[in-house]
Design a protein that fits this description.
By secondary structure, the protein is an alpha+beta fold. The protein has one domain (22-114): Hypothetical Cytosolic Protein, Chain: A, CATH 3.30.1230. The chain contains three helices and six strands. It has helices spanning 78-86, 89-94, 103-114, and strands spanning 24-27, 30-36, 43-45, 50-55, 58-62, 71-74. A three-stranded antiparallel sheet has the order 1-2-3, with no helix packed on it. It has a three-stranded antiparallel sheet with strand order 5-4-6. The relative contact order is 0.15. The structure holds zinc ion (ZN). Zinc ion binds next to loops.
Length: 115
């Protein structure tokens, strides 16, 4: 009698959910770092997202992504910026307690809407 050797399929652990911040994707032959938009939770290349940091109780748009501190990433679109601000997901991502001045972000939003 032939005994079939069935190997038990090992359970593969899925990708660790908390690690998406450090991931990269391949684009045009090179690896680009990706970040998750706090509004729509979609991942995009760093260069496609806007970085927002808290600086002296103000939300600052970090256009060049050079400011120190915890940053949150959001699509530079009316839809995502508006959602990030009004739903508070931005403040949550930045772990801000209290009510920082969000006018720099609102100004950015207004500019986008004018275009
Ligand atoms: Zn988004």
């Amino acid at each position: 009698m032939h005994r079939s050797s069935v190997r038990s399929a090992r359970m593969r652990p899925g990708p660790a959910p908390g690690r998406i911040w450090e991931c990269c994707k391949k684009e045009a032959g090179r690896m680009v770092p990706v970040r998750t938009c706090v509004a729509c939770r979609e991942r995009a290349a760093r260069t496609e997202l806007l970085r927002v940091v808290v600086h002296e109780d103000r939300l600052v748009v970090d256009d060049r992504a050079v400011l120190p501190g915890r940053g949150a990433w959001v699509h530079p679109t009316v839809h995502c910026l508006d959602r990030a601000v009004t739903r508070g997901s931005l403040l949550r991502a930045l772990r801000v307690s209290g009510k920082p001045d969000i006018s720099p972000l609102e100004n950015r939003l207004k500019k986008l809407m004018d275009n």
